[in-house]
Specification:
The complex is a heterodimer of chains A (about 280) and B (about 300). Chain A has about 280 residues and is α/β, with parallel strands linked by helices. In chain A, about 30% of the residues lie in helices and about 30% in strands. Chain A is built from 11 helices and 13 strands. Chain A has a 6-stranded mixed β-sheet with strand order 5-6-7-3-8-9, sandwiched between helices. In chain A, β6, α6 and β7 form a beta-alpha-beta unit. In chain A, α4 packs antiparallel against α5. The two termini of chain A are about 35 Å apart. Chain B has about 300 residues and is mainly alpha-helical. Helices cover about 75% and strands about 0% of the residues of chain B. The longest helix of chain B has about 40 residues. The radius of gyration of chain B is 22 Å and the shape is globular. Classes of the chains: A alpha/beta (about 280), B mainly alpha (about 300). At the A-B interface, α2, β5 and α3 of A face α1 and α6 of B.
Chain lengths: ~280, ~300
């Protein structure tokens, strides 16, 4: 499997704040990677570095290019949706299609039209006349019609209602994703993308604190709903985190012996959100 | 090159003032000409009524009448040239700020288009396409106004036969194209400054474009009691600054018409001073400053980290 993004020791400071503090990670072809972290963890800075929008210390290659210096060439093979509603408000749908077709060598207008025909977006409308959900659909249609190797999504569904969010990820999976493509996505709504991700990258205070394929979660992590009276025994096994849920003590373990855990209560697979909370609290402790 | 064509097309989709402003200008002038011609007023020129004009007409040589027709064409073009400076200013000041304000810059930057091309497409629209559009519409306005004037003046036999000569219109077109070309060079530092401020200003770029130069002017006046900066700035900004350099100032000042005397150049085009203009160090110094400012605008757009 080819390595698409390789970052080594990325550092970036804005005045006194450190946005990236030696972050290192790899992204391989054909994966859907979730870059997840609390506000101010450095997600957006990392994405900007990958997209060549900001310069960072450290070494970074994307598709074999230096993103900052070869930005114009990189953008022929990389697409991004930075935020909802960043399409220019004055542009007409048809003009947006014509323009992207005019400047992007890998854009296929027929594909874009096919996507748009499934929506209620009229090609004579101006962006300012569309709803937020429709603008996102339009943006996605434009981006999906580009034959890009890497798609970067930064909070693409922020502020959208749940139907639009679902629609967004559904079309992404069914119409866009294939073995040749790679998606790097950040979002706060982890639950919604949990089942489409293939890999997790947790970032906290500018560092990567977890880099894990999804299929390894059940292998390496376990959530224990401790039986009454077993709480101290569970604590002795050094859990990552402990919390009270529905009057029971719930522990999250990393690389623990599954048989030892099974003896102490009910073992479940943790969700990404559980893992996120445990990892980040662990880091803070 | 085709990318650049699309960039320019995009600017024209967005900046409809390129056409709307001169169209409004044309509507006002043509409306005024219609009212003057078919309203209740009488034909007059500089306070002279038709009888005086008729007398004057007798005294004038054909060269003088050609000159008057040429001045009339020039007078129609001037409002367009003044108007276009303002549309250029406001367009250039907003060109790189607007895309940051509505965050669409993140969409533009997601496409394989370099910052240099983007900035140059905006420069081309501000410096070349806007004035060309303005003089194109000025030309149409001249045709319409002269048609109205023909209809009105033919019976009076005033300046009749001097309104539609090829040399008159040829000279006028050459003059307008020359002034436009000279304007591209003359205004380049102003447009470059506007683009740089537009790329950089955290908010209200019009203020950032105007207040610092005014501050320098004020400082110079308070400290040195001189006004060199003011003169230099205003010379670059007002139409007369351009005309006095491109035309040597004579065309506008040499015209005298009263009851007894008249002194009129045969054609406004005679006033062109291309050799003086294109060999003037002042012009090329301005171009150099303009190029540096534009390079600065490209650099700022390239390196500015949006919403860090």
């Amino acid at each position: 499997m080819a390595t698409l993004i390789e970052a080594q020791g990325l550092r970036k400071r804005f005045g006194k704040t450190t946005a990236l503090d030696g972050a290192s990670f790899k992204v391989e072809t054909g994966r859907i990677v979730g870059l997840i972290g609390p506000n101010g963890a450095g997600k957006t800075t990392a994405l900007k570095a990958v997209l060549g929008l900001a310069r960072c210390e450290g070494s970074l290659t994307v598709l074999g290019l230096d993103p900052y210096h070869d930005r114009d060439r990189l953008m022929e093979r990389v697409c991004f949706i930075a935020d909802v509603a960043v399409l220019p408000r004055w542009i007409k749908v048809q003009q947006a299609i014509d323009f992207v077709a005019g400047v992007h060598p890998r854009f296929r207008p027929d594909r874009c039209r096919t996507f748009l025909e499934r929506t209620s977006i009229k090609r004579t409308s101006r962006v300012r006349e569309l709803s937020k959900g429709m603008i996102t659909q339009l943006h996605l249609a434009l981006v999906m019609a580009i034959d890009a190797q890497l798609l970067v999504l930064d909070e693409p569904t922020l502020g959208l209602d749940i139907l639009s969010r679902k629609q967004f990820y559904d079309s992404l999976l069914s119409d866009y994703m294939d073995a040749e493509r790679t998606i790097l996505v950040t979002t706060h709504q982890v639950e919604e993308i949990e089942n489409i991700l293939t890999d997790l990258l947790f970032i906290d205070r500018g560092r990567i604190v977890l880099d894990l394929p999804m299929e390894e979660i059940p292998v390496r992590y376990a959530q224990l709903w401790a039986a009454p009276g077993q709480t101290d025994a569970a604590r002795a096994l050094k859990p990552l985190s402990e919390r009270q849920l529905l009057g029971r003590n719930v522990f999250l373990f990393e690389d623990a012996d599954p048989r030892a855990l099974a003896a102490l209560g009910e073992v479940r697979q943790p969700s990404v959100a559980d893992l996120f909370v445990a990892k980040l609290q662990g880091g803070a402790a | 090159m085709s990318t650049f064509k699309w960039l320019v097309r995009r600017e024209l989709w967005e900046a409809r003032t390129v056409w709307i402003a001169p169209a409004i200008c044309a509507a006002i002038i043509i409306g005024g000409a219609l009212i003057a011609a078919f309203g209740t007023g009488t034909v007059s020129f500089q306070g002279l009524d038709p009888e005086d004009l008729a007398k004057l007409n007798q005294k004038m040589t054909p060269e003088h009448l050609d000159g008057i027709a040429s001045m009339a064409l020039g007078a129609i073009a001037v409002p367009f040239l003044i108007m276009v400076m303002f549309t250029q200013f406001f367009y250039a000041v907003d060109a790189l700020y607007g895309e940051r304000r509505d965050r669409a810059i993140l969409f533009w930057k997601s496409l394989p288009v370099s910052d240099a091309r983007t900035v140059l497409s905006k420069l081309l629209v501000a410096s070349v396409i806007m004035p060309l559009a303005a003089i194109a519409i000025a030309f149409v306005t001249q045709l319409v106004v002269f048609a109205i004037a023909s209809a009105k003046l033919a019976p009076l036999e005033l300046i009749h036969g001097h309104l539609w000569t090829p040399s008159l219109w040829g000279g006028s077109i050459v003059l307008m194209l020359y002034v436009t070309l000279a304007g591209v060079l003359w205004y380049l530092p102003v447009v470059g400054w506007c683009l740089l401020v537009s790329a950089w200003a955290p908010k209200s770029p019009v203020m950032y474009a105007t207040l610092p130069p005014l501050g320098v002017v004020l400082l110079e006046f308070i400290a040195l009691r001189t006004h060199y900066v003011w003169s230099a700035c205003i010379d670059r900004f007002k139409l007369f600054g351009l005309l006095s350099h491109a035309l040597g100032g004579r065309a506008v000042n040499s015209v005298v018409i009263d009851d007894e005397h008249f002194q009129i150049p045969r054609s406004m085009a005679e006033a062109m001073r291309p050799l003086d203009f294109f060999s003037s160090p002042e012009v090329w110094l301005g171009v150099a400053v303009g190029v540096a400012l534009i390079a600065g605008a490209i650099w700022v757009r390239r390196t500015r980290d949006e919403a860090a």
